[in-house]
Design a protein that fits this description.
N-terminal domain of TfIIb; 28% helix; three-stranded antiparallel beta sheet; 3 helices; 7 strands; alpha+beta; two-stranded antiparallel ribbon
């Protein structure tokens, strides 16, 4: 077993959490006793932080709607479709017609990169996150 210190990503508090890893699988989470915010406590989301990581319900392949049905497609096809749709929307309606929703299921670093892409790449400040207080 290995314990990996991280920051809970479900809200903006920034609680210190240890993820328990067993044979390359995250199997549990528990609070840091010495973290200045957590102080040995977690909310119910923090205690269950790890559960989505290996969920059988988690999407692992991109899906596109074709003929009214969601179908698995390659990553290249999904990314090409997304890029062309965003370019067309920006061309037709301007950058502020685009909005981005970040996710509490991403790491803080991934969410930082998403806001950089949104602001610098897409040219809009329309980004929000479910973890803001």
């Amino acid at each position: 077993m290995q314990d990996v210190m991280t920051i809970c990503n479900y809200c903006g508090c920034g609680c210190g959490v240890y993820l328990r890893v067993n044979q390359n699988r995250v199997v549990g989470s528990y609070p840091s006793k010495n973290h200045p915010i957590t102080q040995g406590n977690l909310c119910s989301k923090g205690w269950h932080l790890h559960e989505f990581i290996h969920s059988h319900n988690r999407l692992t392949e991109p899906l596109l709607r074709k003929n009214g049905q969601l179908q698995e497609v390659s990553w290249d096809e999904a990314l090409d479709f997304t890029a062309s749709s965003l370019q067309q929307t920006k061309q037709d309606h301007g950058a502020d017609a685009i909005g981005v929703l970040a996710s509490a299921k991403c790491s803080n670093e991934e969410n930082y990169l998403l806001q950089k892409l949104t602001r610098a790449g897409l040219g809009t400040n329309n980004i929000d996150h479910c973890a803001r207080l």
